[in-house]
Amino acid sequence: MSTYFPSGKGLADGRKWFVVDAEGKTVGRLATEVARIISGKNNPAWTPFMDMGDHCVVINASKAIFKGTKTDQKIYYRHTLYPGGLRETSVKEMFEKKPEKVIELAVKGMLPKTKLGKAMAKKLKVYAGSDHRHAAQKPEAIKIETK
């Protein structure tokens, strides 16, 4: 009996496209499921050091929700690379300006911090509204259950 081991050839050809609707979903729970899709952990042939994941399109990012006091307490930090250049933005401000960025940061935080994680993150597409430009790929709708 031999164990199946993926060779890595033709991985990009076999990738599927999925659409996830974020309307009414909690951001963290949504990000967990999307990270599983783009990293390939839902694939039976998953291998830790290969990019086995599929493409994922998240729509209605502006209609996702935060639970508890995260809208008041959660803060995103960035640095301008100049002295004294630490900038902070609350999740409420960022969600009003760029709801796509909030979902992207949540998913990217759940991926590996390596070259492999960056390759996985390229397969994520997030849109604030219900329109997306990936209809030609014939994406399959996925219903994500959040509690």
Please describe what this structure looks like.
- The protein is an alpha/beta fold.
- The protein has a domain at 17-66 and 103-142: Ribosomal Protein L13p, Chain: A (Alpha-Beta Complex).
- The chain is built from five helices and six strands.
- The chain has helices at residues 27-39, 70-73, 91-97, 99-108, 115-121, and strands spanning 17-21, 55-59, 75-79, 86-90, 124-126, 140-142.
- A four-stranded parallel sheet has the order 5-2-1-6, covered by helices on one side.
- Helix 1 (27-39) crosses helix 4 (99-108) and helix 3 crosses helix 4.
List the helices and strands and how they pair.
Elements: E1 17-21, H1 27-39, E2 55-59, H2 70-73, E3 75-79, E4 86-90, H3 91-97, H4 99-108, H5 115-121, E5 124-126, E6 140-142
Parallel strand pairs: 1-2, 1-6, 2-5
Antiparallel strand pairs: 3-4
Quick description:
Helix 1 links the parallel strand 1 and strand 2. The protein is 28% helix and 18% strand. Helix 1 crosses helix 4 and helix 3 crosses helix 4.
